[in-house]
Each structure stands twice: as structure tokens, then as C-alpha cells.
Amino acid sequence: MTIVLNGKKEVLEQQKSIRDLLISKNIDPNTVVVEYNGDIVKREEWANIFLNEDDVLEVVRFVGGG
Amino acid sequence: MCDKLVIGDKQLDSRLFVGTGKYSNDALIPEIIEKSGAQVITVALRRIDFESQTDNILNYIPKHVQLLPNTSGARNAKEAIRIARLARAAGCGNWIKIEVISDNKYLLPDGVETIKATEVLASEGFVVLPYISPDLMIAKKLVEAGAAAVMPLGAPIGTNRGLKTKELLRILIDEIPLPVIVDAGIGKPSDACEAMEMGAAACLLNTAIASARDPVMMAAAFGEAIRAGRKAYLAGLGSTAKYARASSPLTGFLDEMAE
Question: CA of B204: which chain A residue's CA is closest?
Fold first, then answer.
């Protein structure tokens, strides 16, 4: 299954929740915000949303800026 | 003396806002915030790079300050609104600095798109601080759109060139019934001091601090300059004159012949 993660194609060997995907990428879920197919999804929902073919995920966080 | 800067639901003692970009080492940020006395700190929002992850910037920002995320990277109102909503979802408050830029040479803001984004975000309950060119009509429309302050530039972002737009800033300060916060271009503490003497409500500094040889000491210098300029504004500057006006009495000179 292929999804689009932060603008890049990402192949998933098996279906995963958003939360599991982040953990597999060594991301602390408490430090990021997620947009799933164009909608912001709350952190509490990440474990219940399972990614499907062609889903588009944006994972963002704060960085230094002026 | 009570001289608070009121923005949204916040009362601020410090009139220095500090950005967190361009530091050689983000670990400097806590000391920069402390020494500057800043209570409002800007950050940007970006995609995570899964290949090279960096430290979480929030680890370096004390919890008691007001976070002011910007919408940098937005080229139109729609993108700015999207970034603002993502920033609010991070759970660090509802302040947003709208920055809509499609000019990559001078990084000048798009006033029309900024007004559109301000209308939408203010109606969604954001405390909106738009980055603008110091244009009176744009600023007036931002007041109507529900902005909490306006943030005109002194010179293009990151140039350290000072208050090149001084006359236009003066007009905004005179005419706009919102805090006018000078953002971008300030290079020296004396520039910030001058903006405050003119009646600016606050200044936002990033490059001038980050590019100093000693950023922590420069942060302290800006804090002092801004306090001095604010005090001078409140004290009321004396008038200027073309010719000399003696400060010492013009009577009682030693060589004078008594009448």
C-alpha cells in the first residue's frame, strides 16, 4: 500500500494507524500535528485511524522562525 | 508605573517580541529569552523531515511565554489559513502572525491576501497579528477585519537596515487604533529605541539578535533599548529648534558690567 507522507510516496508493508506510523518513524506523537486527507485530526484519534491506499498525510511541527 | 501592552486577552510587561530562527545553536534560545525579557516568542511550522530529525524547538521555549506561530511559507490567504489552523491544533494558544509572501527577492507581504486571511482567522477566534508593508489603507482594512495589532516592516526581513520606512510607520502609529509593532529590518538597538520613541507599541526582533557575535548580550541590549525608548515616548520628547537655545542662564556673566 502506498500513501503520500509529507509530499513523498511511502510504501507501507501492512496497514497501520497514524499513531503506529509515527512511532515507527521515531516521532514523539506529543510534538506534532497531523493533517489527514486535508483535515486536521486530533491526537486522541490517531490510534483509531488506519491508513489506506493513496491517503495523504502531513506531519508538521514548530521550528525556529521569526 | 503601570504601562502594559494589551493584545488579545494578554497584558504584557515587555515590548520586545523575539524570533527563534537562524540561531547557530538553538540551545541559546532560553538565555536569549531570559536576558531580553521577551514574553512573546515567534516560531514557524514545517513538515517533519523524517530523514534528519532535529530537536523540538518547544524544548527551548519556557512555558510562561506567549507563543506566536507565523504562517511563513504561505503564498496566499488559503495557505495562511491552513497553517494557522495547524498551529492552533498544536495546543499552544490561538495567536497567529500572518505572513503571506510570494515575492522571494524582498520578501514583501501581500496585503490583499493578508486581509482575506485576517478576516477568516479573526472570525474563528484567533488573535491575529498581520505582517504588513506600512500602508495606511491596508492597515485600516485590517482593523476592520479584526486584527489584534498590525506589524509593519522597518526594512525587508533579515536585512538589519533599520527604520527605512520611518515616515510611513509614523503615519500608522498616528492613525491606527491598534498596537503598531515594528517587525522586520531592525538592525541595531538604536533602531528599536527610535521606533519606541516614535510611539510604536513593541518591536519584533530576530536576525539582529541571531546574527550578532554574542546573541545573548545583544538580546539584553535590545531589551534595554526598547525600555529606554518607551520611557522616552511616555516622558514626551522636547521640541527641536533650528538655532541654538542656551541651556545655562544668559545673565550674570563674570565680565558683564553691572548696570
Answer: A66
Taken in order of first residue, the domains within chain A and their CATH numbers are: 2-60 (3.10.20.30)
Q: Quote the domain boundaries for residue B132.
A: 10-235
Which candidate from A5, A59, A62 shows the least CB-CB separation from B58?
A62
pLDDT at A56 over 90: yes
Summarize pLDDT for A9-38 with one digit per residue, the tens: 999 999 999 999 999 999 988 889 999 999
Q: Which residues of B are catalytic?
A: 97
Beta strands in chain B (DSSP E): 5-7, 10-12, 16-19, 40-47, 66-69, 95-98, 127-132, 151-152, 181-183, 202-205
- Nearest C-alpha neighbor of B193 from the set B161, B162, B229, B166: B229
Q: Using alpha carbons, select from B115, B118, B148 the residue that is nearest to residue B17.
A: B148
| pTM score | 0.91
The DSSP secondary-structure symbol of B255 reads T
The verdict on B85 touching A (C-beta cutoff 8 Å) is: yes
Beta-carbon contacts below 8 Å between A and B: 90
Is B213 a member of any domain?
A: yes
- Inter-chain residue contact A62 with B89, CB threshold 8 Å: no
- In CATH, what number is assigned to the domain containing residue B158? 3.20.20.70
Alpha carbons B99 and B29: distance in angstroms, whole number: 22
